[in-house]
Structure formats: C-alpha cells, structure tokens
C-alpha cells in the first residue's frame, strides 16, 4: 500500500484539473440549492411534522444519479483509452492500489461536495436568527448516511469505469446501476407479486435494502448496523470486481 | 541495484495466444547486462506482445521470463522495479506538466524524494528537455513527447529498459538524438528496442533478433546475420568487353565466382554486372588485375554488403518456408545498395 498516497494525490490533482469535476460541482450546488429553497418555501406555507433537514436528505438520490457518474466515469475508462493504464500498471504498483487510490479520490470529492451543502443550513440559521433551525440531530444522521452510502455509490461508479474504455458508456452504465440500486429495489418492494405469504422472506430482504428508507432511519437518529454493513460490504464487493475487471480487460485486450 | 546478475533478461519457450491466434510461439532468448538488443519483425510478429509479457503487463500462456533472476509471473512486484518501459505510441497523460509527470512516475517507482529531485534534473538534461520542463504534456511536439517517454523509462535507473518503437514518427534529426540517447545507455543498462526502421537498429544495437509469427527466425549482430542469411559476398562491376566469355574468366579466377546479373550495355559499351562468390577473401584486387588482362575495361568496382533490410526480408521470407533464391538475387540488385569502397 506504499503507492496508495502517490496515486491518491495524483488522482485528486487530475480531478482538480478536469472540467467535468467543476461541471458536476456547479450542477450539484445549483440543484441542491433549488431543492433546499423549495423545501423552505414549503415550510413557509404550512406547518410540517418533520424538520427541514429530514426532507432535504430525502432528495439525496437526485444529485447522486448525476454527480457520481461525472466524478467516476473518467477514472479507468480515460486511462484505458489513452493507453496510460499500461504505463501505470507496469510501474511497481498493484491493481488494488490503483483502484483504491482512484476510489478514494472520487469519494473524497463526493464528500467535499456534500460538505458544501452545510452552508445552506448555516445560512438559514443566520438569516432566521433562530438556532433551532440548525437541527443538529437530523443533520448528523443525514451526513452520516451520505458518507456511508457514498462508499457504495462511488465504488459502483469506479466499477462501471473499470469495465469499459469509453467514458460515455461508463457514465451511462453507472447511472443505470445506481438507478437499479436506488429506484429498482424500492420498486421491487412495492410489487404485489411479492406480497404472498410464501415470498415474505424475499419481501423482507428487499424491504431492508430500500435505500430511501435508510435515509429516513439515519435522519431520525436510527443507525442500523445492518444498513452500515450493507454499504460496507457492497462497496468492498464493487471494488473487488473493479480490480478483477481491470485485470480481466487486460487479459482480453 | 548492486545485485544485478550478468544475464538480465532470460526468456524461455514463451507462448502467448489470443484465442486461436498464436502471437508468440516458443520464444527463447537471453539479454546480457549492458547489451542493446533490437527486436525486428513485420507487423503482427509478436514484438509488442513479447515486450508486454516482459514487463509483466500481460501474462503468458506458457514458458518463463526472468528479469534479473526473478520470475515475472510469480514476483511481478520485484521485476517491475528493474524495468523502465515505454509502450508503443508512448501514452502520456495530457494534462500534466513534464516535471510533474516525472515526479509522479518517480514516486511510483519508489525513488526517495531527495534523490528524485536531482535525478529529474539529470534526465531532463540528458533528454534535452530542460526548456520544456514546465510545459504541459498534451501540448508538446511528438519528438518532445517521445523524449519525455524515454526520460521516464530511464528515470529510476532500471537494469532493463524496454522501448516499443521509440523512434516512430520522429524526423531524422530527432531520430539521431534518440539513437544517441539509447547508445549512451550501452554498458550500463540492458535495452530492448523494437523497430521497423532497420538502419536504426543497425546503428544502435549490439544484437538483433528477427521475429516472425512469434518465432525467432534469425539472431546475432548485424554482421553475423548478413553472413548467416546470405553466406556470400557480392561485387558490383561496371565493365566493357565481351560478356559472353566473362563467366569463364571469372571461374578461372575463383571457382565459386559467378555472374549473378548482367545488365544491358549502354551506348558507351559499359554494362553493370553483379558477381557473387562464397569465398571469404576480398577478390577486388584480383578482379582489377585479371579482367583488364583479358581485354575488359573496368570503370568501377565495389564490394556490396546486403543491408539489414535484405537480411530482414530474407529471414522473414525463409521463415515462411518460401525460399526463392532467384527472387532474392534480383531483389538484392534492385535495391542497388551503396557499394562499400
């Protein structure tokens, strides 16, 4: 792991140089700003049962669908297309170090972008002149969810990039996998075909994997170790598949 | 790097297949420390595949490669430390500066920071890149990019340097610079280069391996190869006189001396003849003395050497088991190589 930090700093530098990072960042802040303003608008009209932070994190999926592919699609696809993957892997580094370095850089950026949304809550509290608006409980829970689930989302992006030489394919593949993971699992849980008695264990399992309900748990202060375990194992698996994907592509090149 | 053995690269019975295509077929060779070896072969002969296997980037189907005594297949981490590699087309990240790139590569190759700082200055000086050290790689000219690739390959002072077509796409001036650069590594590092440009290989390499269809079809120094493939010496002669009895005079002079080709005589009566002999000794003086005695007038005489190109063509053709001696002779004549005087 001695090259991990060399690759990490190189990848962070590459992200800082790349235009798609800034496009993703601007787009993300714009979208999140609109969502936050919309939520405040809603709260100004009538009384709500939940604090605004809880509702805010319910919309986590929207930036994830666009931002994660933009941050990760370049990582392996571009290197493979340019041929620099060959120079990288013929240096005394292991594929695992390269995959982990690229993953960590993208993940740090993902966290950084989400971190900037803390400003929204701060501004709200300053202008409302009311400390109650800085709702620490749901905020801590919500950002914890973002940090934990980000591991899985970003590693899926890395996996998509490791499987192809085209950035566009990597981006679309990542988008599709995230859609399947976030939207598809929720949709499956609602299927009436699963409501029979015999299939109840399947339904229970799928319900437990519904990511939108994880957000609600986290922001309400319920931190379920099963959910954390799901994200940790899922991201580990995606990274292992990325390593295998990079090596398998070389074999078949 | 004190523990570098005398034989730095040892390849034995290497086989690599892509599906039904056999790219490398039972290749064996060794490279000694400090030797510059040229890998020569037509497109698709397996040069790049061989190089990629040597670097540990591609696994082989069977056979073994040892770099500095370590097997590539089971200890890639160890062998990669001894190799500086420049792939085909020299891919570089577009958005980095020259010095940044070298720093990153040096850190990947586990060079200590202090050593790396001075070493980058050294290689930039060696490769004549000092003026370009802060320029962005994507905006460099092809020749400069190529030199960055070479600088990167020699950066960590590895025992083995592998370069896939280092002079491709360069102008003659830059080719000479790159050639000198490679020649300056002789004795310190083992270098394997592949090329299509035959004079290149001839000028730089101590030893040439000619590969075709994944097999070595000929190997040795350029001079050895000439002798091995052709096994004869030829003379180019411009003379006037009776061509009908020329053959008889020549056989009297040296039993194996024959007229290979005899061109049409010009208006001044002079015609160009190519003579071939298996004799080792130089027959030039004998020819000059004997032929005028028989009434021939000689305008020029030169001993011609087959170029490496002829050797290459003959060797690859021989490997296809289509050895056509007649064709080979006419070919040698068509090219009309410069006579060695």
| N- and C-termini, Cα separation of chain B | 46 Å
Oligomer: heterodimer
Most residues in contact, chain pair and counts: A-B, 24 and 27 residues
The percentage of residues in β strands of chain B lies in 25-35%
- Second CATH tier, the architecture of the largest domain in chain B: 3-Layer(aba) Sandwich
Number of helices of chain A: 13
Q: Main beta sheet of chain A: strand number and arrangement?
A: none
Q: Count the strands of chain A?
A: 0
Tell me, briefly, the overall form of chain A: globular
**Shape estimate of chain B:** elongated
Stretches with pLDDT under 50, minimum 5 residues of chain B = 322-337
Helix content of chain B: 25-40%
Radius of gyration of chain A: 20 Å
What does this entry look like structurally?
The complex is a heterodimer of chains A (253) and B (341). Chain A has 253 residues and is an all-alpha fold. Chain A has one domain. Chain A has 13 helices and no strands. Chain A has helices at residues 4-17, 19-45, 52-58, 61-72, 74-82, 84-90, 95-116, 118-128, 136-162, 167-189, 200-208, 211-219, 225-251. In chain A, helix 4 packs parallel to helix 9 and helix 9 crosses helix 10. Chain A is globular. With 341 residues, chain B is of the alpha/beta class. Chain B contains 12 helices and 14 strands. A 6-stranded mixed sheet of chain B has the order 6-7-8-3-9-10, with helices on both faces. The longest helix of chain B has 14 residues, at 113-126. Chain A binds chain B through residues 2-3, 6-7, 10, 13-14, 17-18, 82-84, 86-94, 250-251, 253, and chain B through 52, 55-59, 77, 80-81, 83, 85, 87, 89, 91-96, 100, 104-105, 107-110, 152.
């Amino acid at each position: 792991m001695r090259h991990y930090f060399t690759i990490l700093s190189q990848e962070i530098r590459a992200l800082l140089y790349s235009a798609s990072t800034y496009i993703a960042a601007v787009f993300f802040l714009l979208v999140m700003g609109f969502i936050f303003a919309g939520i405040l608008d809603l709260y100004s009209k009538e009384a709500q049962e939940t604090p605004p932070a809880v509702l805010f994190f319910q919309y986590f999926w929207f930036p994830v669908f666009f931002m994660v592919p933009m941050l990760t699609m370049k990582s392996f696809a571009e290197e493979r297309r340019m041929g620099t993957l060959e120079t990288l892997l013929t240096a005394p580094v292991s594929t695992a170090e390269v995959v982990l370095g690229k993953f960590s850089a993208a993940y740090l950026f993902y966290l950084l972008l989400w971190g900037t949304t803390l400003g929204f809550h701060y501004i709200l509290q300053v202008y409302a002149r009311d400390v109650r608006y800085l709702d620490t409980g749901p905020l801590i829970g919500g950002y914890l969810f973002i940090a934990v689930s980000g591991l899985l989302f970003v590693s899926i992006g890395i996996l998509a990039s490791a499987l192809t030489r085209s950035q566009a394919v990597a981006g679309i593949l990542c988008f599709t996998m995230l859609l399947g993971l976030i939207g598809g699992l929720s949709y499956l849980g609602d299927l009436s075909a699963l409501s029979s008695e015999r299939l109840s264990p399947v339904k229970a399992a799928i319900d437990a994997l519904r990511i939108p309900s994880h957000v609600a748990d986290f922001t309400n202060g319920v931190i379920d170790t099963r959910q954390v375990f799901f994200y940790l194992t899922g991201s580990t698996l995606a990274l292992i598949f990325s390593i295998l994907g990079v090596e398998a592509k070389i074999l078949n090149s | 790097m004190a523990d570098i053995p005398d034989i730095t690269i040892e390849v034995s019975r290497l086989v690599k297949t892509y599906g039904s295509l056999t790219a490398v077929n039972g290749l064996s060779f060794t490279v000694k420390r400090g030797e510059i070896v040229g890998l020569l072969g037509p497109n698709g002969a397996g040069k790049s595949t061989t190089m990629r296997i040597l670097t540990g980037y591609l696994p082989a189907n069977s056979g073994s490669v040892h770099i500095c005594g370590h097997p590539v297949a089971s200890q890639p981490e160890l062998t990669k430390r001894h190799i500086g590699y420049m792939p085909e087309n020299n891919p570089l990240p577009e958005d980095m500066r020259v010095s940044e790139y070298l720093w990153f590569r040096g850190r990947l190759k586990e060079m200590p920071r202090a050593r790396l700082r001075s070493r980058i200055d050294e290689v930039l000086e060696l490769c004549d890149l000092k003026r370009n050290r802060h320029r962005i790689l994507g905006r460099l000219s092809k020749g400069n990019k190529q030199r960055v690739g070479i600088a990167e390959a020699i950066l960590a002072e590895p025992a083995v340097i592998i370069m896939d077509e280092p002079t491709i796409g360069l102008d003659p001036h830059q080719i000479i610079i790159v050639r000198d650069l490679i020649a300056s590594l002789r004795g310190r590092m083992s270098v394997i280069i592949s090329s299509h440009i035959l004079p290149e290989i001839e000028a730089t390499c101590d030893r040439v391996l000619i590969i075709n269809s994944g097999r070595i079809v000929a190997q040795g120094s350029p001079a050895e190869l000439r002798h091995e493939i052709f096994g004869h010496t030829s003379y180019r002669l411009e003379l006037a006189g009776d061509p009908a009895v020329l053959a008889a005079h020549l056989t009297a002079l040296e039993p194996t001396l024959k007229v290979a080709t005899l061109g049409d005589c010009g208006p001044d009566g002079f015609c160009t003849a190519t003579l071939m002999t298996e004799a080792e000794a130089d027959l030039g003086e004998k020819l000059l003395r004997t032929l005028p005695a028989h009434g021939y007038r000689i305008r020029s005489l030169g001993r011609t050497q087959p170029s490496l190109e002829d050797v290459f063509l003959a060797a690859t053709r021989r490997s296809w088991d289509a050895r056509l001696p007649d064709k080979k002779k006419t070919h040698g004549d068509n090219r009309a190589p410069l006579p060695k005087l």
